[in-house]
């Protein structure tokens, strides 16, 4: 069974950016594990609840087929989090799918993996992507190799399907 890890803020993540991709992947038979800076209950911006079963520092890229960074205001705790940045690089080096939605694209930019890549992000993160060498497109969804980026909650369904295709390939 394929496994995907979702890196999710303990609070203020965008509910639909979490549950829509999770449902699409699980409906396709893919196991989704949620990791954060704490284990236990996490709460989204609009009250959606989920459970983190793994601390981010305990995520091993060898155990997963892909990684998804969930957006929302809470994602800023990962912008400079050494574990979050290292994970992006580990998945990148192993040529595994790496996905971010909304402002979480800043995490990928700060990890250095977007340098020279086409990418999108919630408008607030545009300058960071450009500063870090990404080719910012402003599209709702962007795929460049194994890197999938989306710009916000309206793109959650397309983002979910892009992640699913990447994991299946």
Structural notes for this entry:
With 169 residues, the chain is of the alpha/beta class. The chain has one domain (3-168): Rossmann fold (3-Layer(aba) Sandwich). The protein is built from 5 helices and 12 strands. It has helices spanning 15-27, 82-93, 105-111, 126-131, 156-168, and strands at residues 3-7, 11-13, 31-36, 40-44, 49-52, 54-55, 66-69, 98-101, 118-119, 135-136, 141-144, 147-150. It has a 7-stranded mixed beta sheet with strand order 6-3-1-7-8-12-11, with helices on both faces. The protein is globular.
Query: Over all CA atoms, what is the radius of gyration?
Result: 14 Å
End-to-end gap: 14 Å
Q: Number of helical runs?
A: 5
User: Biggest sheet, open or closed, and with what strands and sense?
Assistant: 7 strands, mixed
Structural class, from helix and strand content? alpha/beta
Task: Name the beta content range.
Answer: 25-35%
Sequence stretches where pLDDT stays below 50 over 5 or more residues = none
Shape: globular
Mean pLDDT: 98
Number of separate domains: 1
State the CATH class. Alpha Beta
